[in-house]
Write a structure and sequence with these properties.
Layout lengths: L1 H17 L2 H6 L3 H4 L4 E5 L2 H11 L6 E5 L14 H9 L2 E4 L8 H6 L9 E4 H5 L43 H18 L4 H28 L4 E4 L6 H6 L3 E4 L12 H14 L3 E5 L5 H8 L7 E5 L7 H5 L4 H16 L1
Parallel strand pairs: 1-2, 1-3, 3-4, 5-6, 7-8
């Protein structure tokens, strides 16, 4: 069902872009009238924060935009006309490249002739073999009813592997992505190549230091399992450190209600493994997590939050949120979960 919706959105976007050449070109390139500044457009917060850190003292060289800045989840986002114009006119566009970005292909294809100099970075393409396919999670709700999408148009696509798009939640993936971004900035501004190289070195040292903290927390923890009464976008993080996991839904699931069987299974795992807490992600009502706790034997587990940065707002940015600070907070939740 979700795939059909995304196909419809992509088709409508393509139709809009082809019928609105004046809107897309009449505004002019943002670099032309803004004192030679580039326009860099990102979809999600991690991309935005990485670029910001890599620009460093050269931040005045660019106008940096984060499209998903209002709290809308990556999986629910639909671009506005204003967003499409920004993408059409930008110098550098960064996006994740998973199923949630199904609209991007048409947006880029239908503006390529109007902006031939635009550079594009796709995180999944950057990471290549590091990208994993979505896999079923034991005990979790299954996505939708396969029988409802068995029409002729979907035939042959029903069983295509879907990529797990939450690649930014691995500090090791973040490092690879930052290296690619710094390389692109250097290509666009070769006279400041040394600045971007130094900014990359400084930032990746911070990523590596935090990676070591995660490894130490897992090494010294008395448990090796996380349990989410929620969606589970943290597969890359858990695989980096050899952790097991259970969850109510997969990372890209559109489901919001867990069945009795799923709740019972998760509560049983909490009891079996003597887990001290049930985890949720940002934006959650905690309803499922609390129901899981209520169905355990002791009913005293903590409910803790881990932030997947899929819906970070501009207000969060103004209040000092950064990729590293959020991953530090996630580490504290992880330590409690593994104690």
């Amino acid at each position: 069902m979700m795939k059909n919706i995304k196909k419809i959105i992509s088709a409508l976007l393509a139709l809009f872009l082809m019928s609105a050449p004046v809107l897309l070109t009449g505004c002019g390139r943002q670099t032309a009238g803004d004192e030679g500044r580039w326009s860099i457009v990102t979809t999600i917060f991690p991309e935005y924060d990485w670029v910001k850190n890599l620009l460093g003292e050269k931040a005045d060289r660019a106008t940096l935009t984060m499209l998903l800045d209002s709290g809308v989840d990556l999986h629910s986002y639909q671009p506005t006309v204003e967003d499409l114009v920004k993408i059409a006119n930008c110098d550098l566009f960064l996006y994740v490249g998973g199923e949630s970005d199904g609209w991007v292909e048409d947006a880029l294809k239908n503006t390529a002739d109007r902006n031939k100099d635009r550079k594009v970075l796709n995180l999944l393409e950057i990471l290549g073999d590091q990208v994993k396919n979505e896999e079923p999670i034991e005990g979790a709700e299954e996505e939708g009813d396969p029988a409802s999408s068995g029409n002729e148009e979907d035939h042959g696509h029903e069983h295509e592997d879907e990529k797990d798009e939450h690649v930014w939640l691995s500090l090791r993936n973040a490092r690879i992505c930052c290296e690619a971004i710094a390389e692109q900035l250097s290509a666009m501004d070769s006279e400041n190549q040394k600045v971007y190289a130094e900014n990359l070195r400084t930032y990746t040292e911070k990523l590596s230091a935090l990676d070591r903290k995660y490894s130490e927390a897992v090494r010294t923890g008395s448990r090796k399992t996380l349990l989410f009464g929620d969606r589970f976008p943290f597969r890359y993080l858990t695989e980096d450190y050899g952790l097991e996991y259970y969850a109510a839904f997969s990372g890209c699931s559109a489901e919001t209600e867990a069945s009795f069987a799923t709740v019972t299974f998760l509560a049983g795992k909490v009891d079996e493994l003597n887990l001290p807490c049930v985890l949720t992600i940002q934006g959650s009502t905690h309803k499922i997590a609390q129901t899981v706790v209520n169905n355990t034997t002791t009913k005293d587990q903590k409910i803790l939050l881990m932030d997947s940065m899929q819906s970070t707002t501009w207000e969060d940015v103004k209040n000092g949120a950064s990729y590293l600070s959020i991953m530090e907070k996630n580490l504290e939740a992880l330590k409690t979960a593994l104690q």
